[in-house]
């Protein structure tokens, strides 16, 4: 059950002469009362639309304003061209105020392209004549437009058995107008965008699949099959191997379900050893989280199918790595379990021996993600790595602290700052958070090395408790970062920009940016 793909290519034909179903142009808002009044003169055409404006003899902005266009970021206004240009429809997407530089910010372009392509569902071919600078920022702008267009065109196939009269197919082909379609740098950006967005779209698919169709063995097989097809090394540990290997956290969480847990290891080795640097990725794969014995309230529990979003992101990132071939070794560890209440579930009060030998006192079975992640992170360190990036829908505390768009980051301070920088660059914002000593002190156990949560069940610093716990499973020689995406990984509202309802694919693009950063800078 997967989404359809969108084809992307470059063109250097005059946008006014392109034989497409619709052409997308950008418009900026201007200062003053007219910016929101809808009267003529309140809009400024973005670069890239010059020939189209000329075909309308200077009346294009006035006409768009009469139709209600304000130039507000993400707004899309459609206009029938009536033969004025070759394309029958113009879609004007708002890009906000005119930028002070050569082009709007990359995220503005990404969101604008996504909103426009999404609004043109039902069209076979769409061209984008959006502002692309001819300076050092050209590749960054083109990357943003390409990613936005491909992600904005995403739609999960779903499970409806009857035709939906109002449901239109996503745009099948997107053309991006550039000065030179044969330029090597531009073509490389398109190829990269195709690989990256394919990973994001696959992550969204995996998150959106119904949980009864994606229990741990099924999800593990899907990840393993995709990885083998991409040429990655694959190792899958079943429940027997996990028990024999001492993965107490994964076994404990998974033992309450009739669908047993798994750990999938994926390996990418660069040609001739690359730079010699090693990156480990770990992602939380709880295919459904009831809370176990500490059961969750029923309201909203259906969204707990997204509790494997970290695992989906990590696995899909590895497929993009196999395609992009960075000169660093990358290994992923994907622990997968289903947290269910039953006669065989783990219990509050249990003491679990983790992969690295630490004893954990369980106080809340709904704090299961850190249990499976602890084992996987300890295994990553045992195998050897220079950097460890772990991502998970770990805590509701992340949403309370930072909202639904900004991920929380904890770990080695320097690496956390690199995560923040990467997130800003790709439009997946993240914010570093501390790991206070007093939070760790509150997790002291009377009977074990550490309690799974605060020993007094105190909720203060809930997000930080998760990071503090995970720090116990990282060796001192490894730089690490925990990325809590509880809010950003799933969008429960209406579509906006290049985000559609359901899985978002966060933080695939951040992880890939970080891998490329390690390749370039160590």
TrEMBL record:
Q: What is this protein called?
A: Probable cytosol aminopeptidase
Q: What is its main location?
A: cytoplasm
Binding, Mn(2+) 1:
289, 366, 368
The UniProt family comment states:
Belongs to the peptidase M17 family.
Question: PANTHER family from the xrefs?
Answer: CYTOSOL AMINOPEPTIDASE, LEUCINE AMINOPEPTIDASE-RELATED
Q: What organism, scientifically named, is this protein from? A: Micromonospora fiedleri
Question: For binding Mn(2+) 2, which residues are annotated in this chain's numbering?
Answer: 284, 289, 307, 368
**Enzyme class label:** hydrolase
What this protein needs as a cofactor is:
Mn(2+)
What EC identifiers does the entry list? 3.4.11.1, 3.4.11.10
Q: Which reaction does it catalyse?
A: Release of an N-terminal amino acid, preferentially leucine, but not glutamic or aspartic acids; Release of an N-terminal amino acid, Xaa-|-Yaa-, in which Xaa is preferably Leu, but may be other amino acids including Pro although not Arg or Lys, and Yaa may be Pro. Amino acid amides and methyl esters are also readily hydrolyzed, but rates on arylamides are exceedingly low
Which keywords does UniProt give here?
Aminopeptidase, Cytoplasm, Hydrolase, Manganese, Metal-binding, Protease
């Amino acid at each position: 059950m997967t989404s359809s793909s969108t084809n992307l290519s470059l063109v250097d034909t005059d946008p006014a002469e392109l034989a497409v179903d619709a052409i997308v142009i950008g418009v900026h808002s201007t200062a003053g009362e007219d910016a929101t009044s809808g009267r003529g003169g309140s809009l400024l055409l973005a670069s890239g639309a010059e020939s189209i404006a000329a075909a309308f003899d200077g009346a294009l902005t006035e006409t768009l304003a009469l139709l209600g266009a304000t130039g507000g970021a993400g707004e899309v206004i459609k206009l029938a061209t009536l033969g004025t240009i070759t394309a029958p429809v113009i879609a004007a997407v708002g890009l906000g105020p005119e930028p002070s530089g050569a082009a709007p910010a990359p995220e503005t372009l990404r969101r604008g392209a996504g909103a426009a392509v999404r609004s043109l569902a039902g069209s076979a071919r769409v061209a984008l004549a959006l502002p692309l600078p001819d300076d050092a920022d050209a590749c960054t702008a083109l990357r943003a437009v390409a990613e936005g267009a491909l992600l904005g065109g995403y739609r999960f196939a779903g499970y409806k058995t009857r035709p939906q009269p109002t449901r239109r197919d996503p745009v099948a082909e997107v053309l991006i107008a550039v000065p030179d379609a044969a330029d090597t740098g531009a073509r490389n950006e398109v190829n990269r965008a195709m690989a990256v967005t394919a990973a994001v779209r696959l992550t969204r698919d995996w998150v959106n699949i119904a949980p009864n169709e994606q229990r741990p063995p099924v999800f593990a097989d899907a990840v393993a099959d995709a990885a083998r097809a991409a040429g990655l090394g694959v190792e899958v540990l079943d429940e027997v191997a996990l028990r024999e290997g001492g993965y107490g956290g994964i076994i404990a969480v998974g033992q309450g379900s009739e669908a047993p847990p798994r750990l999938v290891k994926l390996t990418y080795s660069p040609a001739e050893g690359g730079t010699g640097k090693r990156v480990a990725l770990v992602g939380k794969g709880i295919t459904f989280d009831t809370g176990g014995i500490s059961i969750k309230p029923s309201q909203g529990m259906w969204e707990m199918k997204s509790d494997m979003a970290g695992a989906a992101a990590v696995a899909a990132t590895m497929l993009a790595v196999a395609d992009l071939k960075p000169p660093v070794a990358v290994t992923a560890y994907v622990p997968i379990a289903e947290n269910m209440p039953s006669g065989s579930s783990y219990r509050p009060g249990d003491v679990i021996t983790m992969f690295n030998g630490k004893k954990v006192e369980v106080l809340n079975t709904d704090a299961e993600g850190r249990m499976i992640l602890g084992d996987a992170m300890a295994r990553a360190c045992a195998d050897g790595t220079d950097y460890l990036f772990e991502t998970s829908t770990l805590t509701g505390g992340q949403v309370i602290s930072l909202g639904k768009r900004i991920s929380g980051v904890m770990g080695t301070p320097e690496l956390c700052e690199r995560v923040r920088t990467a997130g800003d660059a790709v439009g997946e914002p993240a914010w570093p958070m501390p790991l206070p000593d007093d939070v760790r002190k509150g997790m002291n156990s009377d009977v074990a090395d550490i309690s799974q949560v605060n020993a007094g069940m105190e909720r203060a610093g809930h997000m930080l408790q998760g990071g503090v716990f995970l720090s116990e499973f990282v060796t001192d020689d490894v730089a690490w970062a925990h990325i809590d995406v509880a809010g950003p990984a799933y969008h429960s509202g209406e579509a906006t920009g290049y985000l559609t309802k359901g899985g978002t694919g966060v933080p695939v693009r951040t992880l890939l940016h970080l891998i490329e950063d390690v390749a370039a800078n160590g």
